[in-house]
Amino acid sequence: MNIKSFSVVVVTFGLLFSSYASAHGIEQHQAGEIVKPNFSHVLPDVPGKSLTAVEVIYPAGAASPSHTHAPSSFIYAYVVEGEITSQVAGQPERTYKAGESWYEDPGAHHVVSRNASKTAPAKLLAVFIVDTKDTQLTIPDSKK
Question: Are residues 14 and 70 in the same domain?
């Protein structure tokens, strides 16, 4: 296979994966993490609120750009696999291991979120309690 044919195969595969990912709610952010919807349900006893969970998968060395979340969102984050370094503005940077968790208050500025390892993957489950009308859960600083 020559270089031109190989390039066509790579580009075609990338377009097919992007189409599949978009159709299945998978987001690949620019810095390398993969965000997959896990669960979402309107809370019947709390008018106007929903509970939404997403898996955030960090390949080795991957990171998220600094960001905030929907203004109404309270977030509980649980490390499922590996180690994740996190920092919310005004708090110290901390590395969480599998089985550990933290929370973020509404409006918190998440300045650091990355895989602590350059060689092993990491994964967290982020659970949002959010206004049902807030459909964009993460707002990168670059889009403010």
Answer: no
Q: What is the pLDDT of residues 46-70, one digit of tens each?
A: 999 999 999 999 999 999 999 999 9
pLDDT at 30: 42
Q: Which of these, 103, 111, 109, 60, lies nearest to 79 by C-alpha position?
A: 103
Q: Which run of H or E residues covers position 83?
A: strand 83-88
Give the range of the structural domain holding residue 59, as residue numbers without chain letter. 31-143
Is 57 found in the same domain as 8?
A: no
Q: Are 87 and 111 in contact (CB under 8 A)?
A: yes
For residue 101, give both structure tokens. Answer: 């968790």
Tell me, yes or no, whether 55 and 100 share the same domain.
yes
Rg of the chain over CA atoms, in angstroms? Answer: 17
Owner of token pair 């960090």: 58
Question: Are 115 and 96 in the same domain?
Answer: yes
Residue with tokens 């189409």: 19
